[in-house]
C-alpha cells in the first residue's frame, strides 16, 4: 500500500506537474513566439521606417536638386540681365564719348582754321607793314632827293643869273643829261631788284 500510496502520490504529483510543465512550456513557447512576432513586427516596422526615411531622403534630394536648379537658373537670368544692362550702359557711354570726341574734333578743326586764318592775316599785316615801311623809306629818299635837287636848282639858278645865256643853256643840258643817267641807273637797279624778288 505504501507503494500504492507512493504511486498515487507520484501519479497525483505527476498530474499536477505535467500541467504545470505544459503550462510553463506553453508560456515559454508563447513568449518565444511573442518575441519572434514582436521581432518580426519590429523588423517590418524598421523596414517600413527605413523605406519611409529613404523616400523622404529621395524626395528631399530631388527637391534640393530642383531648388538648386531653380537657384542656378535665377542666378543665370540675373547675370544675363546685369550683363545686358552693363552692355546697354556701355554702349550709351561709348556713344556719348564718341559724340563728345566728334564735337571736340570739330572745335579743334574750327580752331585750326581760325589759327591758320589768323596766321595768314598776321603775315599779310606784317607784309603790308614791311611794304609801308619800304614805301616810307622810298618817300623819305625822294623827299631828300627833292630837297637836294631844290637846293641844287636854287644854287644853279643863282649861278645862271650870273652867266650868259649860252653858258646857262649848256649847263642845264649837262644837268639834264646827268639827271637822266641817274634816273636810268635807278630804274635799272629797281628792275634788277624786282627780278630778284
SSE blueprint:
Blueprint: H1 2-162, H2 165-196
Search tags:
197 residues; mainly alpha; 98% helix
Protein model, in words:
- It contains 2 helices and no strands.
- It has helices spanning 2-162, 165-196.
- It is mostly helical and 197 residues long.
- Helices cover 98% and strands 0% of the residues.
Mean pLDDT: 78
Q: Structural class, from secondary structure content?
A: mainly alpha
Termini gap: 186 Å
Q: Tell me the strand percentage band.
A: under 5%
Can you give the helix content as a percent range? over 70%
The total of beta strands comes to 0
Oligomer: single chain
Low-confidence stretches: none
Rg from alpha-carbon coordinates: 72 Å
In a few lines, what is going on in this structure?
The protein has 197 residues and is an all-alpha fold.
